[in-house]
């Protein structure tokens, strides 16, 4: 029997696309972008819808199941796509998350690991917070023996502007419970993520 599936709702109620499109049009004009060309006339609307998609998490239901077999080994989902927007420049950062846990009395529907990452990524973010929020949420809602989250991402605020460090990646991690306190469990998790150290 599954637990009651509690909905996790998006946190962007009150989005006004028409106002955002007007603001986008003024923003682009203020930067000297010509919007009278045929190919540019709909750009403010496309820009608005694109950012709305990046900043609006889809609701999902948390589904857990009893750990009837007493499974006590690592569960890991690797290479979960991550896309978010840097809160300092509103430029995208993209990469992958590796999310794992050591089950306690319940196990999680595997797709929910990706849903939790997406939920916290769909807002202006910093990678460090995104990593910790994902791990903390899983620890709170799943009560596992341990949780590990590693995110590797390329930040366009670093690669397209400023220092222009093309190809650089940022790696962040949060380890909780036995994945933090037990050296062999921690090493197993890090080895299985495939992250180069």
**Which structural class is indicated by helix and strand composition?**
alpha+beta
- State mean pLDDT (0 to 100 scale): 89
* Global shape: elongated
Within the CATH hierarchy, at the fold level, what is the topology of the largest domain? Answer: GTP Cyclohydrolase I, domain 2
Strand order, main sheet: write it out.
Answer: 7-4-5-8-9
Determine and state the CATH class of the largest domain.
Alpha Beta
What's the domain count? 2
Cα-based radius of gyration, to the nearest Å = 20 Å
Strand content: 25-35%
Q: Specify the CATH homologous superfamily of the largest domain.
A: GTP cyclohydrolase I, C-terminal domain/NADPH-dependent 7-cyano-7-deazaguanine reductase, N-terminal domain
Order of helices and strands: EHHEEEEEHEHEHEHH
Q: Quick one: biggest sheet?
A: 5 strands, mixed
CATH architecture of the largest domain: 2-Layer Sandwich
Separation, N- and C-terminal Cα atoms:
41 Å
What percent of the residues sit in helical stretches (DSSP H or I)? 25-40%
Question: Which tags fit this structure?
Answer:
GTP-binding; 28% strand; five-stranded mixed beta sheet; 37% helix; 197 residues; nucleotide-binding; alpha+beta; 7 helices; two-stranded antiparallel ribbon; GTP Cyclohydrolase I, domain 2; GTP-CH-I_N; 9 strands
A few lines on this structure:
The chain has 197 residues and is an alpha+beta fold. The chain is 37% helix and 28% strand. It has two domains: 17-55, no CATH class; 64-193, GTP cyclohydrolase I, C-terminal domain/NADPH-dependent 7-cyano-7-deazaguanine reductase, N-terminal domain (GTP Cyclohydrolase I, domain 2).
